[in-house]
Write a structure and sequence with these properties.
Blueprint (H helix, E strand, L loop, with lengths): L2 H14 L4 E5 L2 H13 L6 E3 L5 E5 L2 E2 L2 E2 L4 E3 L8 E2 L13 E6 L2 E4 H7 L3 E7 L1
Antiparallel strand pairs: 1-3, 2-3, 4-5, 6-10, 7-10, 8-9, 8-10
Length: 127
């Protein structure tokens, strides 16, 4: 199963159910994605929980009772990886969304990757 798709669906479903936070299975990639989403303002800062069965607790953000996350689209999949350079990173939904990229310097938003002039694997779009 695709770990990134699992994370995105859990976040999307918890958001639609108006949950205050979502628990995700622990991995370094999951923490990096949570930090990138927190930096973009879609979630709160991720917290590591548990000793034996580690989890990541990710607080969800709401504006006027409405979820901040309206939709998510997975771009790079296990069957088809999508890579791009810094010049190929374009705005999502006319600037109302973000693109999350896995680069050699870690997971970051497309805007940050463009500032750093590095490309990488385009993981997903979020708006």
């Amino acid at each position: 199963m695709d770990y990134i798709s699992d994370i995105l669906i859990r976040i999307k479903n918890a958001n639609q159910a108006h949950k205050p936070l979502v628990a995700l299975p622990y991995s370094d990639l999951g923490v990096a994605i949570g930090e990138a989403l927190a930096k973009a303002g879609y979630t709160g800062a991720p917290e590591k929980k548990g000793k034996r069965q580690k989890l990541i607790e990710l607080p969800l953000v709401y504006e006027n009772g409405e979820p901040k996350i309206r939709g998510v689209k997975r771009l790079s999949k296990q069957s088809k990886r999508v890579y791009t350079g810094a010049s190929g990173l374009r705005p999502v939904r006319n600037g109302f969304g973000k693109i999350i990229v896995s680069t050699s310097k870690g997971v970051m938003s497309g805007e940050d990757a463009k500032k750093e002039q590095i490309g990488g694997e385009v993981l997903f779009e979020i708006w």
